[in-house]
Amino acid sequence: MSRRTRALVGAVAVVATIPLVLSGCSGSGSASSGGSKALTIEDYYDANYNPVYKTCAKEVGATVTINHVAGAGLIAKVLQQASSKTLPDVLMLDNPDVQQIASSGALSDLSDYGLDADGDVPGVKAASTYKGKLYGLQSNTNSIALYYNKKLLADAGVQPPKTWDELKAAAKTLTKGSTYGFAMSNINTYEGTWQFLPFFWSNGGDEKDIATADATQALQLVEDLQDDGSMSKSSINWAQADVNNQFLAGKAAMMINGPWQLPALNEKKSLEFDSVPIPTRTGEATVAPLGGEAFTVPQTGDKDKMQLAGKFVGCLHSQKMQKTLSEVSGNVPTNLEAGAAWAKDHPQVASFVTTVQTARARTGELGPDWPKAATKIYTAVQLALTGKASPEAALKQAQSQEQ
């Protein structure tokens, strides 16, 4: 998840649809001859993104109407729009949803507009590719890393861990009084799966069959952290925002979380923190999930407007706009070259830039069937951490369940 924007907009008590018309003058691009220059955009972002849309509208010579939809209701709305032929001209989707919507025939192939994802993080490109065709462009991405409280580690003489053994030792040493050494989200939602995936994937776990020895080792690690008192038993109820609150309150010395937490972390001036890639069993590169959203051009039947929408999406994907969107979102550019430069200028996200280079799309192996595996994974984690089954038995039980 990324899950930052869904959490942000989903926190709103009611579904907010905010129409906004932004008029732009003709820029370097031009609208297709004879076609309307009015585009509709649908996303689950907030109004902070409107100036970005306005910039690209001006560049391609369009006016845009923006509809912000609560994240939890977006996919249901998109499927209804597809059936009623009322899809927007530009549609933003969470990257794991792109293949599902593409498989329904609702999206157009971006190569029709001369667009490609060459030079982007490979996993990001894979997330928006279905049956060999590219259906989305993701301007920035995110993942998760291990944040740590610099003062607490320094006082305890602990170095940021790189391996599982180092993580367990550090977490145990840092657990004192009301402070746990380590925190992560193990909630029974996709957020819980998202946070477990770096341990699962980096150790060879495979979502086609989660009941393997490699997966058991990963789940055993998390259970060990809970059983030795280094991680709170309440983690089974914590979303990522709750984990961040524990870290902010000094109740966790280390946590797994994403760059979208940086604004809240930076607000607490007394907190000195940094982050490193999530430890792996033997210290090899972390394989973590990719977050972020992709912009797509739906099949509306209006070829002229679809061409203009393609230009608009291309503008959002330019390196310049990738940097602008990264400033707004706290994420990192998907273009490898732009990402490397971003890390030098923004050291707080350097660990995330490193992580996304070897990160994977959640739909990379199972495509539209990914949600079934995600459910099995968080179910297994819950079974193990609530003591209902051993890690091995929990994974076997979850693997056998029908979806």
Question: What report would you give on this structure?
Answer:
This protein has 403 residues and is α+β, with helices and mostly antiparallel strands. Helix content is 42%, strand content 11%. It is built from 17 helices and 12 strands. The strands form 4 sheets. Strands 1-3-2-4-11 form a 5-stranded mixed beta sheet. Strands 9-8-10 form a 3-stranded antiparallel beta sheet. A two-stranded antiparallel ribbon has the order 5-6. Strand 5 and strand 6 form a beta hairpin. Helix 8 packs across helix 16. It is globular, with a radius of gyration of 21 Å. The chain starts with a helix and ends with a helix. The N terminus is likely disordered.
Key structural traits:
three-stranded antiparallel sheet; single chain; 11% strand; globular; disordered N terminus; 403 residues; alpha+beta
